[in-house]
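thoughts on both lines:
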Amino acid sequence: HHHVGRGGCLSREKCQQHDRRQDNQVGQTADLPIDRNEPTQIALAARRAENAQRERTLPPEHGALQRSRGNLAWSLESVGELEAARVLEQRVLDALQRTVTSTDATLLIMRFNLAETIRKLGDIPTARRMHEENLAACERDLPLTHAALQRARMGLAVVLIDLGDFERAKGLMEGVVDVY
């Protein structure tokens, strides 16, 4: 008999124990604490396991390893482990800058994600510099309607709002709206 998570069964139809528990709880308020972050924690554990396996078996610059590190960084950020996410994002960005073209989708996303993580860590001047560099690279290398260019504009606009430069932020956001 295999239960998954809190009260869920792999096969409910065959689970008489589950049905008895449900019958006993009718009209009662559950006293069990509910961990609303449990799915996030499970995803984080899975990504840590996947990344550890890839770290052991793939060359340091392998694309699948960079994607795994990026996914793990995203999961770490989602549970508030910003510094650990920043370290991984920097490793991925460094590897990608050595191995892919300037218009590679993973590189574009990682450049943006690292700048955002640094902003969330409170280093607004560095985040601004990184978002400005990212926007300049996107404007140089991508067509006007490319999603990464629009994301770069929005990322810099958010930092400018953090710094109180509302006029420049508004101009960037209007540029995004004009494309769509």
Summary: Residues 1-34 have pLDDT under 50 and may be disordered. The first strand starts at residue 3 and ends at 4. The chain is about 70% helix and 0% strand.
